[in-house]
Amino acid sequence: MTTADALTYLSIPADADPEQLFPAREQMAFTLGFHIILVPFGVALTTLMLIAHHRGLRKGDTEALLLARRWSKVAAVLFAVGAVTGTVLSFELGILWPGLMKNYGSAFGFPFAVEGLFFFLEAIFVSLYIYGWDRMRPWAHFWCGVPVSLAGLGGTASVVAANAWMNQPAGITLEHGKVVAVRPAEVYFNGAFWLEFLHMFIAAYIVAGFVVAGVYAAGMLRGRRDRYHRVGFVTGFAVAAYALPVQILVGDTIARQVFGDEPAKFAAIELLPTTSSHVPETLGGVLADGEVRYGLKIPDLASLLAGFRPSTRIDGLEAVPAQVRPTDAEATVVHWAFDIMVGTSFLLLAVALWFTWLWWLRRDRLATSRWFLRCASACGVVAVLCLESGWVVTEVGRQPWIVVGHLLTRDAVATHGNLWPFFGTVLALYSAVGAAAVWVLRAMARRWRQQGDAAAPVPYGPEHEVREGPVS
Question: Is residue 382, in this structure, part of any structural domain at all?
Fold first, then answer.
């Protein structure tokens, strides 16, 4: 179905937005923005844990084994938080967006069914891995952790598949606006899946790596410059630093894919009101009354990046039918989010290059250069900001569609009742869960600093002494 066909079928004026649309969008933005922060730790923190575990077993590195043990406990806490927030998200799809689930649930729900299988697999092996410390043979225990990372990867791929399908729907047969046949493989592996999945996969390692490294950099700034902190810092930072250049190349490729397949989103990214060639790259600025104001323009750069020629023609927002054109505010949000994503990526790249220079030429300065450690400790926050900005580009850039070319967001939202109390309840729940997670993690860190890694006895479990170091 083309955009013109969709407009003919829908025939809804632009001012017909139900009053529930705004709180529903705000709630979905908040819950997605909260949950997306947890995703990198399910995918990449478990891999960092395995890297440290492997190093500890191969080289008899007691610090690396201790890091693996502690990171596994952190991963378990974040997995539990992700289970809560992810469950709320699944309920929200049915409560807030009944039009989506009613009309396209048979297609849209398939990737989430696959994600559920990966979730249970991850839960099983997380339990086995954590319980296996000092109870399993060393290498059997290590291999028991591998499915944790793989299941997290598969679950993330499934959620990305659902999101990518909303951007480029495929694998469905429609009759009179209704889905009459679904081809699951085409739904899952839709046209936007591979690049969007690769982008999210690499982002997970960048975010988790920089956040982990930031924790140990902050510790070194406080004087804790022992080998334990250095190994923790280098393991996280090296993974993130070397993934970053690949991510920039993937992001550049995705931008050109958006240029070809999603012209309305690309026009919003470039804050381009009218179709033209020799389009400048606008940094900052706002779109008001169809005009760009206050932005800094770099001549020809947008056309050059989109088609490798300054004469490349880019469709502006005027080319989008008025009924489905993003508002000036939405286009400005997408543009700013894209600018922040790109800007923070290059800030992180600069610190990564600094790290590489110190590692190869002045390795001793890694733990003593306070300015480098200050920048490294901030990289975790910057990486999370970069991740959130990327998801804003994806989600807001699709507006006003929830399924591009098929279903408008205003036609998918619930139209009965007051959604603000529901939003308030979810806000309170997420705040409580987030605060509890921070409290637990800080309490764990405080206990580790004061008492080491000895496990506290519990009334319902076998008492044992936890040995630090290689298990023979």
Answer: yes
